[in-house]
UniProtKB/TrEMBL annotation:
Tree of life domain: Bacteria
Keywords: Membrane, Transmembrane, Transmembrane helix
Residues that span the membrane, as ranges: 6-25, 46-68
Name used for this protein in its record: DUF4149 domain-containing protein
Organism: Rhizobium brockwellii
Amino acid sequence: MTSNIFFGAAAVTFFVVLWLILPAIASRRDVMKMTPAEHGWYAKRIFPLMLLFGAFATAGSLAGQWGWP
């Protein structure tokens, strides 16, 4: 039960990351021509969310081993 909740939270976090990234990829021909300010904006939002995704996925996979119901 707890692992399903963590995997659900990981999925929601992953879709939020995709929701943030897709407009930048779809609206530009060359993503490498973004300004440094745009790269910084994405870095401040995407990297912490991906770390949160990894934490949720890890907790979900180890929940049974830790004895959580």
